Amino acid sequence: MVLCAVCCLALGGVFVRISEVGPVATGAYRSLFAAPMLLGIAFSTARRVPGSARMSRSARIAGRDRLMIVLAGMFLAADLCLWNISFLYTSLAESNLLANLVPFVIAPLCFFLFGDRLPWQVVFPAMLALAGLYILVILGTGLDPKHLQGDLLALATAVFYALFLVIAKGLRERYEATRIMASLSLVCALACIVVAVCLSESLWPHSGRGWLVLIALAVTSQVLGQTLMAHAVKFLPLQLAALFVLLQPVAAAVYGFFLFDQHLSLLQLAGIAMLLVSIFWAKNLLEGRK
Length: 290
Description:
mainly alpha; 290 residues
């Protein structure tokens, strides 16, 4: 099940590349189509929960939390905009991998925002990650301007996704996950549409195939992948689940190789291996403190 979830999540870049609308507009449709699906899941879940638990799930969202939802939706929109654009300049594997450097952003964020102390051991995976980044982004690309631009966009994606997770975690403690994600998806879709218009992107698919691509993206990457992953982690040790998540760039590399003839050099593969080890190492250190 977790392997299926990983494969679904890694499909995002594939659909962006074959979409008939612009990359940011594709992100808007992804979130827009996912919102009613998530709302349906939230309502069906609430019906099965009796008594007070059901009331807490259906409680009205406080005014301050509504502002937090808007802010989180904006961060998620920035994440999607940058990530989807990065697919046009760099490989699917590199974009997926660099966007997964979230643990190295989350740790300092929690320190500055909440005063969480960082374990000194996190310095070692961070140094390994920097070495992997240097090999992958600097040495591996030969400083090709377009490729470097895609990698930098993917790196920025990790920053905005980390900001989104920090806010979403607080909201998740007070409200049901699918309900929050449905609201966030609507905010994210609106923000992405505004950006797509400003960038003069194509906003309307010109064939039935174009619509099917957008629907498939919403079902696989936004709903099915996340839902399967959330369900699977209940039956797996946390460290094993984190290891499986790191297979997403591997799945993306396979898609890129067979669908878009994207080849990775031995030097790039070495950088990717170092980054995968550093991410898993950092996750274990940070999760071990909880």
